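Narrative of accomplishments. A recurring question from our advisory board has been how the design workflow behaves on a single, concrete structure rather than in aggregate. To address it, we present the structure tokens for one chain from the evaluation set, followed by the sequence designed for it. No filtering or post-editing was applied between the two.
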């Protein structure tokens, strides 16, 4: 028997999935919510989290894994983590030179983004080089801001990690490299050569090249579980595989390895992504091209107002998710023409720097119509801002916490005019990480790896309703025009 463990350190929790590769089964799953997932500050644009919280959760969860599996059969561990966040370390990964980590929800680096794009010849040149124009949450702009604000702590920093490579380092007991997929979210890697892009690195901060880990393919063995943890938990010297980003891991965890397929993750952030053969860069600047852990590339567009926006509307109504779902069943597709721009927090796509919710035709409307408005808005935004990928999907693989909600997935099917298949609602990034560990350990080809495990929940297909599809074709055009008008003020 060979067991493989995959962790997922997401925004709100740390989860794990352990697979028995030969049997094709998941033998253990667990999840540990963070008491304080992010630290707010007086400036709402600044959002950090504590790397010590992630480290403690990793140790707790590894102990739970050891207590619940046939330990001797564990072969390798990999993981996934929220993307872009940076961890600043000294000589070893256990020493921090900065107490907190800016995470993907941080939008405080507008100035640094402008400076970096200017240094590289503009937003389009930055996107051609690194796969994305400069985005406030991306690691390069964040590093530049840290260097500017605390040059002494920056100078003391020996290694700058992503959340993924930091946690891999803790498992291995030494600084681990960054995988190409998560490295693509930094505005620092050349998306074609998959090496550090000197021009971007030099423009970001002095001596940065020396502080960056190596870049490696996602299937790289980065070390062995540190001896102290082997002894404490009675675990064998398992291989530690490179960790990756949560979205790249979810892509393989939802079985996507061929261009023409799309997945939507409804987690803290909402994301839409799919495999890509060539690094086609988003023309409107909204999307990103990342290296894919399964080879070639992936396209992705990210929305910050995902679950937190849905929760805000649910709280306004004072409802449970069941009542929220009932409201979606009871209101008509298209909401009688009412629209919402669901920008409860600063938005990533399109870029909106301050909360700015817009409601049209909803004045005095009952709560149920507000519930429908936020879901329709999110689905139309997902559809409207992913056309750059050039994929018209026949089927969408849905994952993330809100994919547990069939009424939300019905709106998705109707807006995209495609069947939606539900994947295990919370575990696709952790499962993807376990699959990556297995694939890296055995060199098996990806279609074979995902065929065994990454299957939709049985009988979960939700088909589009042709009448609703027509309604959304018209409404979607109005929605995109409303966005443009709101952005123009
Ligand atoms: P992340 O991985 O980004 O931390 P998850 O993918 O685990 O987040 O999703 C967690 C979110 O799922 C919760 O914040 C909650 O809003 C949402 N959620 C859970 N159940 C439902 C439901 N039935 N309907 C809609 N949303 C739900
Ligand atoms: C991706 C992104 C988010 C985080 C959330 O670009 O910013 O989806 O990875 O975990």
């Amino acid at each position: 028997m060979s067991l493989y463990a995959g962790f997922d350190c997401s925004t709100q929790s740390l989860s794990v999935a352990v697979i028995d590769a030969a049997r094709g089964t998941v033998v253990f799953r667990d999840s540990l919510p963070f008491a304080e997932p992010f630290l707010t500050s007086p400036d709402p644009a600044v959002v950090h989290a504590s790397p010590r919280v992630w480290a403690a959760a990793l140790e707790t969860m590894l102990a739970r894994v050891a207590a619940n599996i046939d330990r001797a059969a564990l072969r390798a561990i990999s993981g996934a983590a929220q993307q872009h966040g940076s961890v600043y370390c000294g000589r070893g990964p256990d020493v921090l030179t900065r107490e907190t980590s800016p995470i993907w929800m941080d939008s405080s680096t507008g100035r640094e983004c402008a400076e970096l794009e200017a240094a590289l010849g503009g937003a389009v040149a930055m996107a051609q080089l690194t796969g994305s124009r400069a985005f406030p949450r991306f690691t390069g702009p964040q590093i530049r801001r840290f260097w500017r604000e605390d040059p002494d702590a920056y100078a003391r920093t020996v290694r700058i990690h992503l959340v993924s490579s930091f946690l891999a380092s803790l498992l291995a007991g030494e600084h681990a490299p960054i995988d190409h997929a998560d490295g693509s979210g930094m505005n620092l890697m050349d998306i074609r050569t998959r090496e550090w892009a000197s021009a971007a690195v030099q423009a970001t901060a002095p001596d940065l090249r020396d502080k960056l880990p190596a870049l490696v393919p996602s299937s790289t063995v980065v070390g062995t579980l540190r001896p102290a943890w082997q002894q404490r938990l009675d675990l064998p010297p398992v291989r530690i595989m490179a960790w990756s980003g949560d979205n790249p891991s979810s892509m393989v965890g939802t079985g996507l390895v061929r261009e023409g397929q799309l997945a939507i993750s409804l987690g803290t952030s909402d994301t839409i992504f799919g495999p890509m053969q060539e690094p086609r860069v988003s023309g409107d600047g909204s999307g990103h091209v990342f290296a894919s852990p399964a080879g070639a590339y992936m396209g992705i567009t990210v929305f910050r107002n995902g679950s937190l926006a849905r929760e805000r509307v649910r709280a306004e109504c004072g409802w449970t998710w069941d009542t929220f779902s009932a409201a979606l069943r009871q209101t008509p597709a298209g909401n009688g023409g009412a629209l919402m721009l669901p920008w409860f927090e600063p938005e990533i796509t399109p870029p909106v720097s301050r909360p700015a919710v817009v409601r049209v035709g909803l004045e005095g409307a009952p709560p149920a119509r507000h519930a429908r408005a936020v879901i329709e808005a999110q689905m139309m935004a997902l559809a409207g801002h992913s056309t750059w990928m050039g994929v018209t999907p026949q089927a969408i693989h849905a994952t993330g916490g809100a994919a547990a909600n069939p009424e939300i997935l019905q709106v998705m099917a109707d807006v995209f005019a495609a069947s939606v298949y539900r994947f295990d609602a919370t575990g696709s990034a952790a499962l993807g990480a376990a699959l990556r560990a297995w694939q890296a350990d055995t060199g098996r080809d990806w279609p074979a790896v995902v065929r065994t495990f990454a299957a939709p929940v049985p009988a979960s297909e939700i088909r589009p309703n042709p009448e609703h599809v027509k309604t959304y074709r018209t409404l979607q055009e109005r929605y995109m025009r409303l966005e443009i008008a709101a952005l123009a003020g």
